[in-house]
Known about the structure:
By secondary structure, the protein is mostly helical. The protein has one helix spanning 2-103.
Amino acid sequence: MEKVWEELKKIDAQAEQIRSEAQTDAKEIVNLAQKESEELLVNSKKYAQQEAQQLYEETVEEANRRGDQQLEANRKATEHLSERGQKRMEKASSTIVSAVIGET
């Protein structure tokens, strides 16, 4: 009986050691998971900032491109209107000169 009792104590001590090691391992796993999740959060923030910066730069480039296109369209329209105005001015001048010469 004494031998059985000693064997049970050994088994109980081993079980306690296994439980203690498992608890220590579990704490380490939780700490590691916490650390990794914090790193992922930091990396996610960095990635989001990079993506936002890239989107901002692309938006600025697109706005500049559209602005340049609009400036070119405005330049062409101005040139066209100026040419029309010049032609009308020439016609008006010619009409006025003809009217003055014809009346004299």
